[in-house]
Design brief:
Blueprint: H1 6-18, E1 26-30, E2 33-37, E3 46-51, E4 55-59, H2 65-78, E5 81-86, H3 92-95, H4 98-104, E6 109-113, H5 114-132, E7 148-150, E8 154-157, E9 160-164, E10 178-180, E11 185-194, H6 208-220, E12 226-232, H7 241-258, H8 263-271, H9 281-290
Parallel strand pairs: 4-5, 5-6, 6-7, 11-12
Antiparallel strand pairs: 1-2, 2-3, 3-4, 8-9, 9-10, 10-11
Helix pairs in contact: 2-4, 6-7, 7-8, 8-9
Length: 293
């Protein structure tokens, strides 16, 4: 489970507390979507805004209050009415910004697939208390919001069907990617990363990497021309190359783990050739998961 202890959390949020303009955040137009990528303090997470002529649907709500507010500004600038917010999984970098969005767009409704929603309902309050309780005031929203159960396998946007795929494994066990066939677009969430380290804390458990690989194969088989990953650097690709990058990192992880006899050796091998990747915070957690204690 993604729970941050105080020491590691402060490594992430120190920059966010000091940076009011969040210069590392970025916005890109991808087909019929606007994709907002947070700064490093926001863990380089993607939020996608699927746009119709008058309305919009948001997928994932960011981590810090600052990034969520910038995302809200971006949505407002499109002139569309935000109808729905879909949370793909329980991780706080996709969830904790939700109150900021709902306060800004009170007509919007937030949803998660039933299994995902049930897990969020179980862990949201203690997760928020641990994270926000360790942070300077204002880094996070003033509360956590649990989304409603999505009672269907899709959302509609001005007659366009937005498919919410069944939960599958990536950096956690229950992630719901989003497929918009009419736009040839797949929002992979945290089943795909590019130009960043992968969050391996949960996938390090037995069978985790194999399940992740299977999910990548399942999404790749859809054949979407536009693929929006869960984490990337601003300007990174939004195509099937994100699957190649994810599998390459999983291969590297497996090889480094198999060749290492200690946490120190594993860390050294994991960083070989990957030192320029973003989301460096994930490395210490990966090492601890592979070599606990």
């Amino acid at each position: 489970m993604f729970l941050l202890d105080r020491r590691n959390f402060l490594q992430v949020t120190a920059g966010a507390a000091a940076a009011s303009l969040l210069p590392g955040s970025a916005l890109a137009r991808v087909g019929n979507a606007e994709v907002f990528t947070s700064d490093e303090a926001g863990l380089l997470v993607d939020s996608a805004v699927i746009m119709g002529e008058r309305s919009a649907v948001l997928v994932d709500a960011q981590f810090t209050a600052g990034n969520a507010a910038l995302l809200a500004d971006m949505i407002a600038a499109t002139g569309r009415r935000l109808e729905s917010i879909l949370i793909t999984h329980y991780h706080p970098d996709h969830l904790l910004g939700l109150p900021i969005l709902l306060d800004r767009f009170p007509e919007a409704r937030a949803y998660a697939q039933a299994d995902v929603q049930a897990f969020i309902a179980q862990v949201a309050e203690p997760m928020y208390a641990q994270i926000a309780g360790s942070a300077p005031a204002g880094v996070f929203a003033d509360r956590v919001v649990v989304p409603e159960v999505l009672g269907a396998d899709h959302l509609m946007l001005e007659g366009e069907r937005i498919e919410i795929l069944p939960p599958m494994a990536g950096d956690t066990a229950l992630i719901t990617p989003v497929h918009i066939p009419g736009l040839d677009t797949l929002i992979a969430s945290d089943i795909a990363y590019i130009d960043t380290h992968l969050w391996m804390e949960e996938a390090a458990a037995p069978g985790g990497v194999e399940a992740w690989r299977a999910s990548v194969a399942q999404l790749r088989a859809i054949g979407a021309g536009t693929v929006i990953p869960g984490h990337r650097k601003p300007g990174s690709a939004n195509d099937a190359g994100v699957f190649d990058a994810t599998i390459a990192y999983l291969d590297h992880w497996d090889a480094a783990r198999a060749a290492s006899g200690s946490a120190e050796e594993f860390r050294m091998k994991l960083l070989e050739g990957t030192g320029d990747l973003g989301f460096a915070f994930a490395v210490d957690r990966a090492v601890a998961a592979a070599f606990p204690g």
